[in-house]
Write a structure and sequence with these properties.
Blueprint lengths: L1 E5 L5 H10 L5 E6 L3 H11 L2 E3 L2 H5 L5 E4 L6 H10 L3 E5 L6 H13 L4 E4 L6 H12 L5 E7 L12 H4 L3 H17 L3 E9 L10 E8 L4 E5 L15 E6 L2 E6 L4 E6 L4 E6 L4 H15 L7 H20 L3 E2 L4
Parallel strand pairs: 1-2, 1-4, 2-3, 4-5, 5-6, 7-10
Antiparallel strand pairs: 7-11, 8-9, 8-15, 9-10, 11-12, 13-14
Helix pairs in contact: 1-9, 4-5, 5-10, 6-8, 8-10
Length: 327
């Protein structure tokens, strides 16, 4: 199966490309990037062909593309790929506006192509085990979840609202919400959120707190802050404390690692030894395209998490809870 990458603007593109390049059932053959230097360097790194023109890439003999452009450009690139009958794995968030996400979903349906959204957190072993425990009923009814998705401030276009759609709230709420929707088969009903910029001199939020009521009545809190310092041994974390009527479960999704004390470079880093979530995500997408089954993480899944983000921003603006509108 031949795959192309549309843009290396998002750092996840390098991890995805590496998985494709080493996958037994796939081949990375084509790369486009509006930054020609970045695109050519990626093409050399992954032994793929660089295309100056995106339309030319999309007319090549490829089966699918991975879209890793800036958030605000996802719509443009997904629509182009769908029109050329290419299956699509789109980096999160699906879009920066709900109307754009709806148009993307419709276009992929109209052209009969797969649209999968990149939420690799679903494939973390600890998260999958948590889902199994919840569904077994061992914890009784889950009445509350306290979650974090902390990270380092990524800089670049991530802090330019016209390209990113927002700051840490846009970047990190979606991962937690997708995992919770998947584990509980539950939707957000209302949200109260407050955001601020306290760690960095940037034009978007870098910290905040989100409180949600789910349709089941479960209460969820999320801290999506860019609060990890530059010397932190990894990019961030995903944690959850689940409180049930029959027990409490604490999840640290990236706990399966060894610490590497690197005197030569003067830094400490985490070396994961668990199953690679990016490898699992890409393998799932490849299998989805090859077998023709429905995507594990659909465009609608991406839409639902975006609706929560937009609701959180609306709440922050008026300093009151708002109802989540599902389109």
């Amino acid at each position: 199966m031949k795959i192309g990458v549309i843009s290396f603007a998002h750092l996840h593109a390098y991890a995805y490309a590496d998985v494709v390049a080493n996958h037994p059932n796939a081949e990375l053959t084509a790369i486009w990037d509006d930054d020609a230097t970045r695109g050519q360097e990626a093409a050399a790194q992954f032994n793929a062909h660089f295309y100056q023109d995106l339309d030319t890439l999309l007319t090549q003999d490829i089966d699918a593309v991975i879209v890793c452009s800036e958030n605000a450009r996802h719509k443009e690139h997904v629509l182009k790929a769908a029109q050329q009958k290419k299956h699509i794995l789109c980096e999160k968030p699906i879009a920066t506006e709900v109307a754009d996400a709806l148009e993307m979903i419709q276009a992929c349906e109209d052209h009969s192509v797969t649209l999968q959204v990149a939420y690799p957190v679903r494939f973390i072993p600890a998260i999958r085990e948590t889902k199994d425990i919840i569904q077994s009923g061992e914890m009784g009814e889950i009445i509350a979840v306290n979650a974090t998705n902390h990270g380092q401030m990524p800089g670049g276009w991530f802090v330019e609202k016209e390209l990113s759609g927002g700051g840490s709230a846009t970047d990190h709420i979606v991962h937690i919400m997708d995992a919770l929707r998947w584990m509980f088969q539950d939707e957000a009903k209302s949200v109260y959120a407050e955001f601020d910029t306290r760690f960095y001199d940037i034009a978007v939020e870098d910290c905040g707190s989100v409180l949600l009521e789910m349709e089941s009545g479960m209460v969820v809190s999320i801290d999506p802050s860019w609060s990890r310092p530059n010397v932190y041994p990894t990019w961030g974390n995903v944690t959850m404390k689940l409180i049930g009527t029959e027990g409490t479960l604490y999840v640290d999704a990236f706990k399966q690692h060894a610490l590497y004390y690197n005197d030569k470079e003067g830094k400490l880093s985490e070396q994961p030894w668990a199953d690679d979530m990016n490898e699992q995500l890409i393998s799932d997408f490849i299998d989805c395209v090859k077998t023709g089954r429905k995507p594990s993480i659909s465009g609608v899944d991406g839409l639902r998490t975006l609706e929560v983000v937009k609701g959180a921003y609306a709440s922050n603006d008026i300093k009151k809870p708002v109802q989540i509108e599902h389109t």
